[in-house]
């Protein structure tokens, strides 16, 4: 079903969606913890010695600027923790307890790509008939607007684990929601 992409690691006894979800957990936790540690650690040099703010004329405002930058870094780390890391962890724990991901079929109506168009890092899509946006991380194949897909998603984090193009056309008034 989901064979249209480059798979780096193929384990025959583990479903591809399970391996993808399990691989995302350590990377998200590492990004989150490194960001928080970078902002909290007093040894971290927020303003580098070669930086413009290290000039003697900024000596009075430098501590305030450094505190503001640290607060922004920690706030970003907490946002990633709250929005991505915890929901994905809860979904993976629920999947380990036997809850299956949700399959939805629909046409992609909107796509957003952050990070200056680097679509293989993160894609956010909206599917016709669903109000939530779904997220696809680290995919070698982009989702295209106007095409119909079968998406395998985690319900709490709205993370797309796998996808394939679908031949089914979705009825605008009644979205198809399947459970395994």
Describe the protein.
By secondary structure, the protein is of the alpha+beta class. It has two domains: 16-96; 102-179, OB fold (Dihydrolipoamide Acetyltransferase, E2P). 36% of the residues lie in helices and 21% in strands. The chain has helices at residues 16-40, 62-96, 114-117; strands at 102-112, 122-127, 133-137, 148-153, 160-165, 176-179. Strands 1, 2, 3, 4, 5 and 6 form a six-stranded antiparallel beta sheet that branches. Strand 2 (122-127) and strand 3 form a beta hairpin. Helix 1 (16-40) packs antiparallel against helix 2 (62-96).
Concise account of the structure shown:
The protein has helices at 16-40, 62-96, 114-117, and strands at 102-112, 122-127, 133-137, 148-153, 160-165, 176-179. It is of the alpha+beta class and 180 residues long.
- The whole-number mean of residue pLDDT values reads 81
* Domain tally: 2
Total helices: the number is: 3
pLDDT below 50 for ≥5 consecutive residues: which ranges?
Answer: 1-8, 173-180
How many strands appear in the DSSP assignment? 6
Write down the Rg. Answer: 20 Å
The end-to-end distance, rounded to whole angstroms, is 14 Å
- What is the helical fraction, as a range of percent? 25-40%
> Could you say which structural class the secondary elements and strand pairing correspond to?
alpha+beta
Main features:
21% strand; single chain; six-stranded antiparallel sheet; 3 helices; 2 domains; 6 strands; alpha+beta; 180 residues; elongated; OB fold (Dihydrolipoamide Acetyltransferase, E2P)
Furnish the topology, listing elements before pairings.
Elements: H1 16-40, H2 62-96, E1 102-112, H3 114-117, E2 122-127, E3 133-137, E4 148-153, E5 160-165, E6 176-179
Antiparallel strand pairs: 1-2, 1-4, 1-6, 2-3, 4-5
């Amino acid at each position: 079903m989901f064979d249209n992409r480059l798979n780096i690691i193929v384990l025959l006894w583990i479903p591809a969606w399970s391996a993808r979800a399990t691989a995302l957990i350590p990377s998200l936790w590492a990004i989150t913890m490194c960001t928080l540690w970078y902002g909290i650690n007093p040894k971290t040099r927020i303003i580098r010695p070669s930086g413009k703010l290290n000039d003697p004329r900024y000596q009075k405002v430098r501590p305030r600027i450094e505190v503001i930058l640290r607060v922004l870094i920690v706030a970003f780390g907490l946002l990633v923790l709250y929005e991505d890391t915890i929901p994905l962890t809860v979904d993976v724990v629920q999947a380990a307890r036997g809850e299956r991901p949700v399959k939805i079929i629909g046409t992609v109506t909107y796509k957003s790509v952050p990070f200056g168009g680097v679509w293989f890092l993160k894609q956010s899509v909206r599917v016709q008939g669903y109000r939530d946006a779904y997220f696809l991380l680290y995919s070698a194949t982009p989702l295209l607007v106007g095409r119909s897909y079968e998406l395998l998603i985690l319900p709490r984090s709205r993370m797309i684990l796998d996808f394939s193009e679908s031949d089914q056309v979705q009825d605008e008034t009644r979205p198809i929601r399947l459970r395994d």
